[in-house]
Amino acid sequence: MGYKPTLEALVLGALWEGPLHGYRVSLAIRTKSEDALRMGDNQIYPTLHRLEAEGLVVAEWQQQLGKPSRKVYSLTGSGRARLEQLRKEWERYAASFIAVIGTGSASHA
Amino acid sequence: MLESIDTYLVKQYLAELKRELVIRSVLGARLEHVMAEVADHLAEAMEAAVPDSEEEVVRVIRQFGDPKRMATQLSAAYEQPESKRRFLWPLAFLIVAFVVFVSRVFSFALFTAKPGSGDPNGFVILGHRFLGNGIWSGTLFLFFCAVAFAWFGFRSRRPLLGQFVAGAALLIAGQTIWYAATSYPVGAGARRQVEWYEPVPRGQIDRHIATLESDIAREQEIGRLLVAGRTVYTTQGSPTAVPASLKVGAGYLTPEGLREVMGGLRPDELHPSLRPSSWKEAVTAWTDRPYETGATFADEAIARVPRDIEFVQLQIDQANWVRTQPLSVQIALDLRMVGLRTAAISGMAMAASWGGWLLWLLSRTFERLRRRLMVRQMTPEGA
Fold first, then answer.
1. Which partner from B28, B73, B206, B309 sits 20 to 30 angstroms from B225, CA to CA?
2. In this prediction, does ipTM exceed 0.90?
3. What is the pTM of this model?
């Protein structure tokens, strides 16, 4: 048994504060986790495209001066609701996990 | 120099990714969008990392990840919603087919033939009401249905079986329930040798039997007139001896012409060969012996009368029998009435969808050949 929708939660969480393009989404995951959550950057694209197909994020191509257009993603209402749900699930999962393995202080007590 | 190295390595990576995506059928605009997105990502990653050695460039590209894995995951991500659509399309079409069927059934219940419409049983002929322009409309209708089912077979990319089995089962159940609730399944032919069943609305069963009885009375009258005709239309006979009931206007009636007129056809609608104007032709039409049995046209026509009467009488017997049967027997007969034909029609629709699927297989083979050619063109020389 494990917590499966991890990457989906991370991508949605990265977009929580506002629209980002792919590189910034992976950077946000890395920096917010202080480099604890490292993965191949390209892992986020299949997740982003699936979330887009499911209507949890929307994407638009933004023009850049002197550069090719850039695809920028933002959360939809359903995406926000899904993230809330994932947060609750994660909290429940983490609490269950802690209940079993205990915290450092509790195990010494 | 470093700029050229990172440009070269990124291009190499992008070419590899494109190749992997093409192999996994990520093509067209979708492929272009993914490539643009990845190129943008790598460009920004390079800007941020400011690599000062080739190893540093390789590290940034490695950080992005394995192209094969990305292509596999992207292909799977696109596959998921498409699979849902593949299932939903045929389902949606079956729903439409069901609605068409229901409207057809209701139209049967709502529209009945007006008196004198020409239908001897007093029921509207649905094909004529819906496909007023005759057989061409029917053929076009079937053709468009076949094309539609073939299209869904093409879209679904697999042989559709379950949907058609489920659809046929639903249609058979729906029709059986509907007919059991609204009509009697009246058979034509002897009880154990029924040739076909006809759903006669419950409220019209008496009228139906009365119509059949009048058919018998008409057939008896035809028999009486044929016997009379056989005695006057002879080589020894005279035109003046022919009664008015065996003539039409200035001409004479043949045995078949007599049957047509008695069946309700207007004399002017009769084919000229059935109402000859010369006495000689008329006599020939009654006395010729074209059959191996040696019987004349008149004898054959007279011999047919008791057979026709018996056939109609069997329908009357069937109608009287079926109305006295418990509902379970009527349901079983309704099932027999609709089961085979619905299964046959569903089978034809399924065959059309399989035709579409085979077309897709063919197009996929061509697509694979085209892709293999593209991949070969993208592979760098010496690789």
1. B206
2. no
3. 0.48
